[in-house]
Structure formats: C-alpha cells, structure tokens
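Reviewer 2 asked us to include a model.

Predict the structure of this chain.
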Amino acid sequence: MVQRLSHANAGRDSRQVRRRTLGVLLVYLLFSSMYVAAHDSEEASSESDHMTHYELELRPGGSRIFKVTWGGQPLKARWLFLLSAQMRGDGQVVVKMQGSGSEHPFATYDWAVDGKVHTELTEIPEDGFYNLTFLNSEMSNDTVDIRFQFDQSCECVGKILDLDGGVVVFQQKVEKGEKVHFAFAEPDGAYFRVWAGVRNRKPLKWKTGFDIVADALKWGGRLQMDYTVETGGTHYFFIESVSGTGFIVPEYELREIIKLDGDEGFGDAPFWFVGIGVSVVLLGFILLVFVKRSR
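Predicted model (structure tokens):
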C-alpha cells in the first residue's frame, strides 16, 4: 500500500515536472518569437550618423527604422541627402525617408537585392530629424543582409567614406569668376572618383540632376580640381568610392579674379596680391619724392 502510494505520488510528481517543463518551454518560445518580431520590426534605433556605415539583417516582412541626425543635431533644409546601400540575399527591399513626426515619406526607393551598391539622392525639405526605414518584402523567401551609409552636403571639415562603393558629398558657395581649388590625399589602397557639379533643371536624381563642371586629376597620390566658376551658387563636390574607403579632409581655396575694363584684368590674381603690389608702388613713389626733396 505504501509502495503503491509512493508510485502514485512519484507518477504525479513526474507529470507535474513535465507540465512545468512544457510551460517553461512555451514561455521561452513565446518570448523568443516576441524578440524576433521586435528585432525585425524594431522602432527607431539609436541615432545614426553619416561618419560610419551600418549593417542589418532583415527577415521576410521585417523592417528596421534608423533615426538620421547630423552628429546628434537636426538636418538642415535644402541639404542634399545621399544614401548608398549594398544588399545580399534574394528579394526586394523598399526604403522610405520621412520626417520623425510624419506619417508620409517624401522619398521612396524600391531596390532589387542583387549584391550591387545602389545610390539615391534627395533634398532635405526642412530642418529636423528624419527616419530611414528599410523593409524586406513579405513575398521574399530569404533573409537580406544590408550594409549602408548616408551623407548630407554639410560644409564639414572632413568625412569618412566608410562603405566600399559608397559616396560622400561636400558643398561650397561660390561666385562667378572665382577660381576654385579642391584637393585631398587619396587614402592608401583606395581608388576614388571626384567631380564637382551644379544643379540643373532636370529632376533631382543621383548624377542626372547635376551638370559636371570639373573632374579631379591625380597628382602624386593627391586628387585635385582647379577650375574657374562660370555659374555662381552652391557647388557640390562628390567623392565616389570605386574601391576602398578612408578619411577625407579636403583643401578649399577660393581666389577672386580682378577685372578692370570689360573682360580685361589681372587674370586669376587674388585681391590681396594686387593690394600688396599697389602698396609697394605707392611706397616707392613716396620714397622717390622724399629723396628728391631732401636734395
């Protein structure tokens, strides 16, 4: 009798253990599925910045949102915004750009996942923070790996081109007739293409929305552009990675052309140089008059 009771108790205990174990497994699976869902449809992540590249994984139907800032500060109206991304896997990825408090994107891109680097360009409509959303199509049967970097046309001292095949951009306001000098040392092992452009009347898109005014030449490990401004306004300096990455600190120099009568002038001599020359001539004349009077 005691043995039967013991066996009965043992049976009840083993069933309770199995129930508890099953309950723990169910709770674990529930929280695991919640974690996966949260991971793939995560709300705005920590602030992202243009000085580095980012990597993410999207399962079919998954999405990620990145809060876009300029070093923690809001982006400025009329800045260009460049997005470069490389995707691996199989499927279709949709990217949306919208204000942090807006429900409607002002830019949407639909990219095939083909392993190539895709670059898109738009203009920031107003000062503020923005969200960048990546969505893997629900029709996709594969997880997509994405590497991306964004940049904006701020007047920064330097930038890091951190994505092989990516693009960064600088901008500078210039006036007609100025001589522009733009140069920097190409990072070791990198091969960059550098060109200056101005907005044209075509829709604002990567490359086709600009007229090229100068291409950089390579001189002893340095990429350099020197040209005379024909159309004043904002000039954009695009740096494309054909291969490699690196830190870029460009030299800017603007020299003004002095014109006296019509198109005749001092060529590309800057104001300060002409000023020094005139001062030397005046000083020599004064000294000559002083010497004659002392005689």
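The radius of gyration is 31 Å. Residues 155-259 form a domain with the Jelly Rolls fold (CATH 2.60.120.380). We have added this to the supplementary material.
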